[in-house]
Amino acid sequence: MSFVDTLRQWDEAVTYAERQDFQEALRIFLSIQEPNSKICFDIGCLHLLNQELDAAEKAFDCSIRKDEHLAVAFFQRGITFYRKKRYEESLGDFQQAFKALRGNQLIDYKALGLRCKLYACDVLHNMALAEAQLGKWEKAQENLVKALNYKTEAKLNIIDRALQSTLKQKLFKPVEFPSKELFKPNKHYVAELEKKDYLGKAKVVASVVPQDEFSGFAPLQPQVEDGPTRPKEPEVLRALEGEPHTVLFEFVPETSDELAVVPGNIVFVLQKGADNWASVIFNERRGLVPYNYLERLEISLASKQNEVRNKLLSFQKTTDNSYIVKVRFTFTFTVRVPPGSPYAILIEKISKKLNLPSTAITLSLTSEANERSVIDANTDMERVWSHVKDRHITLWCKTKEQTDGEPQTEIHLVALHSYESSNPEDLSFHEGDTITLLSRVNQDWLEGKCKGNTGIFPASFVEEVPVNGQ
């Protein structure tokens, strides 16, 4: 059966139901060969109206099988089980209906063709009733108290009466969905079922041929050259103004206003209505999607900062050719100098950074300041700058206080846990490795050297050991 035939029969069946001719409506529904979840729901409602509980159960089974997120189908099957006195299964379906609401106060099915709303407080009310039928009165009271958080003014009296009944351990009536309300096919699709004559019957107005009955078209009219072009709607720019959400479930549109999405898609929510429908943008297209099919996507601020940082570094690389000198002192810092700078410029930059006179500073190419590695006014700076790689060079710095008297004792650390670097400047090591402390970056991070590699690492991953303990 084609989609057009299904649509035509669906519309015809709903029309009979509106006239209260439920038997004829059910007959037409049952003749549809491949009913969708909404049609199966309609069939179940009509069976439920006729007290045909077994047939209603099968129809709602079919509806749920075709759309496992249709909360109202779980609700109606829960009512069917309740009437069949299968209270455990009834409770299970009401719980599934509440889960499908995903914390929302209600779902308005108007946009899907059903002029009804499913309220969370009604679902909790019926859950409490099923619990009461099973003798779980305390659990029933808990569900009713929970229902107060989702109540509306119109529903308050119903919940209050149910609470009073549970306190006396008396049963109360279930809240039922109006079975006469059915899903209707999209009115725009139904309108297209009628044949339309867009051209009309051609008529001869004048002809040089007597009794001419030619009914062809007039010649094509000349087109306007360089006519105005339709501006492209800036939907992508508008999407950036929305909130990013991840799609949890597949949604198949039933109307031209809705948008097809599948799990994993990222959509931007422009507006969320009170009826639980969200106006979203996906792939430059705008449409409606049920908000309970979406989950808000939290974008990490750190990732944004890293992106900006990388862009800035990239910009600096293209606009600044300075050498970046990384200086290892009791702490680590950097200075920038022009390529091929003399010793005077380099030492001036470092002395300003340390706020010390240049005569109190000793620079070297290695951590051990010996005759070959020391850098001073007599050093060939071309040899120093030959160690530059990608405009970066590392130097070691000691002050007069550090070089006088007894040499400082190195501080050694042992790794309590393994640490894998997540950034290029981090230091990787394994549990039990020995690390030489170079500097304390702050109270949480240290800088050290391990197996010939240098970098920073969390202070909580290591502990200090005596030098003679190695």
From TrEMBL:
One of its GO terms (cellular component) is cytoplasm. Residues 240-299, 408-467 form the SH3 domain. It is found in: Cytoplasm. Belongs to the NCF2/NOXA1 family. SUPFAM superfamilies: CAD & PB1 domains (SSF54277), SH3-domain (SSF50044), TPR-like (SSF48452). Gene3D superfamilies: Phosphatidylinositol 3-kinase Catalytic Subunit, Chain A, domain 1, SH3 Domains, Tetratricopeptide repeat domain. Keywords: Cytoplasm, Repeat, SH3 domain, TPR repeat. GO terms for biological process: superoxide anion generation. Its main location: cytoplasm. It comes from Seriola dumerili. This is Neutrophil cytosolic factor 2. Pfam families: SH3_1, SH3_9. The keyword Cytoplasm applies.
